[in-house]
Amino acid sequence: MVIAVYQEYQPDRRLAPLVECGWARSVPAAGFLRVIPDGGVDLFVSSRGQAMIAGPATAFYDLRADEDGVLAGLRFRPGAAAAVLGRPVCEFTDRLVPLDAAFGVGAGWVTEKVFAATTPGQRVAALKRMLTEHLADSEPFVDTAVLGAIGMLQRRPHWPVASVAAAVDLSERQLRRRFETAVGFGPKRLGRILRLQRLLELIHARGGRVRWSELAIEASYADQPHMINECRALAGISPVALPGGVSVSSNTAAADTS
């Protein structure tokens, strides 16, 4: 496996409620990149001049690297993308969608300036400027009940849906429907994904000093077999393969799986 070179950039204050970070990632172009779900939506541009939306992934997928293996983008916070896209996020779930198909050919906030930038960092900066301009005359609506539920699942990813719904004064049916619109899938799926992300963070924090049975409990799995099964279902690999080749973030892509 080849580990990606990855860098994050802080969002501007105006974008911070919607954008988790800007990012740039480069790897050798041969082979495919394993993408691990994180519950977010990304807007990114490639070195070949493609502008894409990576919808929320329900499980892993493999993305072919472009010619020089460079991508630059913005990652929307879970639950925030619908406010920017103006459409239910479930329309983008498990899809890579050309930006003009989502916003129309005349989308004014992705221009030649983005593609004229010569470094990934400059492209991230250009994307932030374009998004700021796009939102200048609008007040994006974010579902605060869904955001509250996401915050609870980030702290307790194993919580039952009924408990999360009750905590935000919604029925289970209402919560699932609003999650489909704002997140792209239901709260149970997001809890599984957030639990995997917690496991990845714990693995990276410990380096090579990992006791898998203890880590499974700390990451809120029932036991070690449960953790192994979930890793294989969501990441396509066993936990022991995670530290050497998988980054904590999904839509930035993680490892050369050739």
Give your account of this protein's structure.
This protein is of the alpha+beta class and 258 residues long. It is built from 11 helices and 9 strands. The strands form 2 sheets. Strands 1-2-7-4-5-8 form a 6-stranded antiparallel beta sheet. α5 packs across α8. The radius of gyration is 18 Å and the shape is globular. The chain starts with a strand and ends with a strand. The C terminus is likely disordered.
Helix-strand category: alpha+beta
Average pLDDT confidence is 84
In terms of quaternary structure, what is this? single chain
Shape call: globular
Percent helix, as a range, is: 25-40%
Low-pLDDT stretches: 244-258
Strand composition percent: 15-25%
Mind telling me the C-alpha Rg? 18 Å
- The helix-strand sequence is EEEEEEEHEHHHHHHHHHHE
In CATH, the topology of the domain at 5-135 is named: Jelly Rolls
What's the number of helices? Answer: 11
| Level-2 CATH architecture of the domain at 5-135 | Sandwich
Count of individual beta strands: 9
Strand order of the largest sheet: 1-2-7-4-5-8
* Top CATH class of the domain at 5-135: Mainly Beta
The largest pleated sheet is described as: 6 strands, antiparallel
End-to-end separation: 7 Å
